[in-house]
Fold:
Amino acid sequence: MASGKVPPDIQPYLAGAFLIGIGKKDGGIRPIAIGDIYRRLTSKCLSSLILDEANEYFLPFQCVCAQGGAEAVVHAWRSLMNEFDIDPSSAKSEKTFDCNSIGCKIDFVNAFNSVNRTILLQECAKKFPQIYKWAFFCYSQRSLLFFGNFSISSEAGVQQGDPLGN
Structure:
C-alpha cells in the first residue's frame, strides 16, 4: 500500500470512512470520521518516516506529533520555551509571565475540509517525496464517507484523524 500499488478501484473505499454523529451540548451533531484501519496504519508508518523532516519544516507554526497527542504538544512547547530562554518560573504571579513571548493554540475553522488537495499533493511531492505515492492514492480522487444507508463524496480536505493530514 505504501508504494501506491493499490488498485485505484478500491481507493474510494479504502481512503474513505464511516461517519457517526455525536450529540453536542447545543443540540447540534458533531460528525466523527472513522477511517479504514489499514489506511490509518499505512499513513502512521509513513508519517513516522518523515517526522523529523516535517517538524523541521513546520515548526514553530505547527507541531507534528507521531504519538502522544496533547502530551507531545506540551513537550514541544516546553522545548520551544527552553530554546528561546523563556523561564515560566519568572512569572510575577500564577497568571502572568514576565517575558516577551506568548504561545497560543487557535482553531478558528475546521481545517480538515478546507485543505486544497491539489496543493497538498504538490507540496507533498516537493517536501516529502518518500510518502507521495501513498498521499496521491489517498487524495488524488474523491473518496466515500458512509453514514447509515447514505454515502457522501469527499472531494476536499484531509480526512479527520489521518496521520498524513495532521
In short: The chain has one domain: 8-154. Helices lie at 11-14, 37-49, 51-58, 70-83, 117-127, 132-139. The mean pLDDT is 79. The CA atoms of residues 5 and 65 lie 27 Å apart.
